[in-house]
Amino acid sequence: MAAKPAPPGECPQCWQHAHDKSIHRRLGPREDCPDCVNHMVNGHPTLVPKRPSRWW
């Protein structure tokens, strides 16, 4: 079952990998996810949705 879309202000890839267990199911014990490692090294994408403003 796919996870819900990432809420505003959260990285879509981090959210998906944290909440969708099927992504990491194919990995062996103590095996790192290449997508997660790449994401940790290179950082979050520039398209992270912003949190809604609560000023108004």
TrEMBL record:
Protein name, as recorded: PRL2-8
Organism annotation: Streptomyces alfalfae
Taxonomic lineage of the native organism: Bacteria, Bacillati, Actinomycetota, Actinomycetes, Kitasatosporales
